[in-house]
Amino acid sequence: MKKKHLCFAALILLFLSCKKGKENPLGPTSFKETAISVNGLNTPPFNNISVNPIIKITFSTALNGTNFASNIIFKDLTNSANVAFTASLENNNTIVINPATNLTGIKAYNITIPTTLKSTSGGSLQTEISFSFNTGIDDIDKFPRITDEELLTKVQEQTFRYFYDFGHPQSGMARERNTSGDIVTSGGTGFGVMAIVTGVHRNFITRAQGLARIQKIVSFLKTADRFHGAYPHWINGSTGTVIPFSQKDNGGDLVETSLLMQGLLTARQYFNGADNAENSLRTDINAIYNTVEWDWYRKNNSNTLYWHWSPNYNWEMNMTITGWNEALITYVMAASSPTHSIPKSVYENGWAQNGTIRNGSSYYGISLPLGPNQGGPLFFSHYSFLGINPFNLSDAYANYEVQNKAHALVNYNYCKTNPKGYYGYSENCWGLTASDISNGYTASSPTNDVGVIAPTAALSSMPYTPVESMKALRFFYYKLGDKLFREYGFVDAFSLHQQWFASSTLAIDQGPIIIMIENHRSKLLWNLFMSCPEVKTGMQKLGFSGPNI
Q: What domain of life does the native source organism fall in (predicted)?
């Protein structure tokens, strides 16, 4: 009997020992995170968060109240600096984090909690927690406030530097973009010449400096590669030889040539002095313009102009220049030529396509006379109208003041309405046109909207939408200036939705900014170009009417 009792006691001790080991064989139990929220958002990505967010991290058990705050690492990912914060416990198992001061807008931040975090029972966090979030726009001015007129001048002067300070050292031509090295652009140089005229007018440089730069450009153009008088899109700024834009685009580009001629004729009208230097400049510009065989680019006398011709591939690019797009200036330059002019029938059949360029639909209550659905990219209303004054200008197809104002307002209202819901689009942040995007280049428009705003779109529309464009300028400069405003003015494009900002500047986007702001302020370039006697004759021949012709 005694033996039986002893065995029973031993069994009890063994059972208790096993039970105790099963409950906690290795010490305190580990735990994990069960939820993360940033300003109420419970699933990543945590984008466009306010600059004073509330961050909550919930765990599967109660936390050690004296240990949790020292295990929080809050970093600014731009510079890896620590961010000051306060932290508290809610319901014993939720850490609540607040930045000590407002964060910076449009920045990436990270919060990490290592496995050294402890529970009340002494258990450790199973797996390190690390997550990031991006702040949205803040309301802090990035630069001191100045008057609107001072701001317009500042933007013009900074943008001017792209063409003057960054002009190619040998040729003086405009580089294609800020990373292009020896690649210079013929059309962009036309914009650059007009920018230099503006720079003289605004006293950014002297008249002698402006004249010297344009003499340098013209001297280079006299010896650069030409194809039946037309320049290629890209030229080597040191040698003057063609750089192919694509395999078969290695010859003349008539549209780029017309943009170049628009600038050269404007400079010819500006430098009107009687001295030998200015007189020689005018003679050289006339010779360059008169050598362009606009009529030859009709391709065997057809009733349209062709964009390209190559000495290796002839007409294989086979791209007719038809409207509505940026190339109205090409037909005006061709009709205005004293030596190789085209008849009105080429304009009517080739450009106007016998009237099919008409639109006539309304968008956002705005009737659009010409062009594609919702107007297309805004450079359609810029490039040709750097020199052509559209105000009170009409032909058989449109009133061009109405056209360009409607185009800009449709673009503005599209961005304001923001049908795709892109973060950042507003009445202050608008403008869709051709530009760099985060993974390439595209012609943005209401029908091709990838969430990227290009400053040139709204700013170059200043003559058409002065109130809306000025709002955009203030927003770009004061609210986003630390991201956008650089050595040569505004960067090419940005996306608040993607939190992407270009590092690039392009001649064809910088040029219209300085030129169209000047046309808004003084009509300088419009007055100069429209004073050309050839242009008046050519536009009258095409059926244009208005007070300037």
A: Bacteria
Query: What local confidence, expressed as pLDDT, does residue 26 receive?
Result: 53
* Same domain? 319 vs 404: yes
pLDDT for the residue 10 = 42
Supply the pLDDT for residue 399: 98
CA distance 96 to 86: 8
Per-run averaged pLDDT (10 residues), the chain, 549 residues:
43 41 61 96 93 97 94 95 97 97 95 97 96 96 98 98 98 98 98 99 98 98 98 98 98 98 99 98 98 98 98 98 98 98 98 98 98 98 98 98 98 98 98 97 98 99 98 98 98 96 98 99 98 98 97
Q: Is the dihedral of CA 165, 169, 173, 177 positive or negative?
A: negative
Task: Measure the CA dihedral 198/200/204/210, to 10°.
Answer: 110
Residue 28 confidence (pLDDT): 85
In a domain, 313, yes or no: yes
Taking the CA of residue 356 as centre, how many other CA atoms within 13 Å lie in the half-sphere pointing to its CB? 6
Query: Is position 279 within any domain?
Result: yes
What range defines the domain where residue 473 resides? Answer: 148-541
Same structural domain for residues 86 and 190?
A: no
CA dist., res. 474 & res. 3, Å (int): 97
Q: How far apart are CA 127 and CA 36, in angstroms?
A: 14
Reading the block at residue 265, the tokens are: 């004729």
One-letter amino acid at 55 equals I
Tokens of 514: 């300085």
Residue in the block written with tokens 């800009």: 408
Residue 72 sits in the same domain as residue 191:
no
The CATH number of whichever domain residue 321 belongs to comes to 1.50.10.140
* Backbone phi, psi, residue 81, to 5°: -75, 150
Sole residue written with tokens 């140089």:
189
Q: Give domain status of residue 50, yes or no.
A: yes
130 with 191, same domain? no
Distance CA 173, CA 217 (A): 6
**Cβ–Cβ under 8 Å, residues 71 and 117:** yes
DSSP label of 544: -
Q: What pLDDT is recorded for position 27?
A: 67
Helix, strand or coil, per DSSP, at residue 541 = helix
**What CATH code is carried by the domain that includes residue 76?**
2.60.40.1220
Instruction: State the total domains in the chain.
Output: 2
3-state secondary structure at position 86: strand
Q: Are residues 405 and 276 in the same domain?
A: yes
Residues 131, 277, single domain; the answer is no
C-alpha–C-alpha distance, residues 457 and 412, integer Å: 10
3-state secondary structure 185-227: EHHHHHHHHHHHHHHHHCCCCCHHHHHHHHHHHHHHHHHCCCE
Taking the alpha carbons at both ends of the chain, their separation in whole angstroms is 130
**What confidence score (pLDDT) does residue 4 get?**
45
